[in-house]
Structure to design on (604 residues):
């Protein structure tokens, strides 16, 4: 399902763990445990400090330490480190720190406060890629950045040096429409630039519609369930594996995926209670019970 | 047009200056000049580190220094300091720094990356106000925060200690509809909590619809033109003064107000070129010329 021009690190399951806090400080031990869990499961790459990893909330020092911990515990598994920030200077600082930590690649979303113009977005990527020595994944996440990258912007940014993958928002759930969308986008990108999908509920469809990678939230906390989808022998089996997780997808839609995986991680003892950065809060008791119930349904051995 | 229960600092023209950079560093001298200009013009209060003042892009150190400079150069004019951040811990740090600098009040927008729930927003204000010793202005700016505060949330937050004003998004331009909106909102708020409007083009209407204050972008750079509106003897005169600035309002809508006032400040020599934090960029030459042309039209003496 992937093309050979795309480097292996940008194919298959890229798992995005939480960056857990304890008493509002980085929980080094829990974070190391989450990374080790992903390595043991055999994910293709680890997406440290993605949206699920709360990069937008952490200080430079916390981010640098998390990047170093992730690389240290990932061993041979490549680590992609999120470097987004509202200010260009802070993005460049995060890029330096990620490279210093040994990141295999970096991931950059165009965070915004004042709405950005297309020219500002392009020049952000231009200036960051001019500064980099590792590959860059373009991270298009309109739900959090409030920036929507057009296909024209994808095409322009994909020509910049170091750009090697684009993490696109959820694709349509209809397989034929999803395939048309991937084919159209592929036509706008150089052959060496992979396409990775976010939006866990449509990942099974997207991977068989031609996406190279799945940048996965659930894979960062329950990697085995995500690998059941990426390792399925065909599209039907992948969709069946995904459909079994429907109770989780419904909770993602209701509460936001990060709150749901935080509740799972806390329930499984992978992190302390209250692992998200305030003002984000853990789920209320009713929702937490629904998550625990759904988890028991989709993964009785968890 | 204002009620006597509302403290004077939260009435009339509150002017929001840029926080100008020079070579991507805080331009202390230009900032002092902007503050002095506002004091000389006679604004009622200064809104340092608002959205126009790029608070969301600056480091803790830059924000602390800007707050101190603003208070130092404001003399007797009260300074309201923006303390918003994505993380609660960073909001509390900014509150400490603002109080240490001598801020008369603080201004808090619920910045978001992951969308916030109503409960998360309420608890953010609850935790910050429990920590404060100065008044707080609730800053509702959905265009940048991507959070919309409901009237129920306004009402709940307005009961918290230290809450003294709410900076609401632009009101409808129709005077009767604007008055109905202010009256309805007033009915939900304690008498000591003022209502201030943002959205410069509708400020003349809003002030005569019952708003106590105008939290003003244009007032931060061209205070005299803003005072022409707030000091107008009646509603018709205020609207006429505002209508004279229509060329600027149109440019605000086209390019974002912060880019337009940055172009004006740079043109007038109040700041260095490139005073905004990247990835924000100054206007392209055509748009910049349009701004200079509009400025000459609305204020030939500028």
């Amino acid at each position: 399902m992937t093309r050979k021009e795309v480097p292996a690190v940008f194919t298959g399951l890229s798992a995005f763990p939480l960056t857990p806090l304890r008493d509002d400080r980085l929980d080094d031990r829990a974070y190391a445990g989450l990374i080790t869990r992903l390595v043991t499961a055999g994910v293709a790459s680890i997406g440290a400090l993605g949206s699920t990893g709360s990069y937008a909330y952490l200080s430079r020092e916390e981010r640098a330490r998390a990047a170093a911990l992730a690389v240290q515990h990932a061993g041979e598994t490549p680590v992609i480190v999120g470097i987004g920030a509202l200010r260009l200077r802070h993005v460049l600082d995060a890029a330096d720190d990620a490279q210093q930590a040994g990141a295999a690649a970096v991931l950059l979303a165009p965070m915004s406060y004042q709405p950005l113009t297309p020219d500002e977005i392009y020049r952000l990527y231009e200036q960051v890629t001019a500064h980099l020595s590792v590959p860059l994944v373009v991270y298009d996440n309109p739900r959090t950045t409030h920036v929507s990258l057009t296909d024209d912007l994808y095409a322009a940014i994909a020509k910049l040096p170091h750009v090697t993958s684009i993490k696109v928002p959820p694709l349509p759930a209809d397989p034929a429409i999803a395939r048309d969308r991937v084919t159209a986008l592929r036509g706008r990108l150089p052959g060496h630039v992979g396409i990775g999908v976010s939006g866990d509920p449509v990942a099974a469809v997207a991977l068989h519609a031609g996406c190279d990678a799945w940048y996965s939230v659930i894979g960062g906390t329950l990697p085995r369930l995500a690998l059941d989808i990426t390792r399925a022998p065909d599209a039907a089996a992948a969709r069946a594996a995904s459909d079994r997780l429907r109770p989780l997808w419904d909770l993602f839609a209701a509460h936001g995926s990060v709150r749901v995986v935080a509740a799972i991680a806390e329930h499984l003892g992978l992190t302390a209670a209250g692992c998200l950065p305030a003002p984000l809060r853990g789920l209320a008791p009713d929702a937490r019970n629904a998550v625990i119930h759904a988890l028991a349904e989709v993964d009785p051995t968890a």
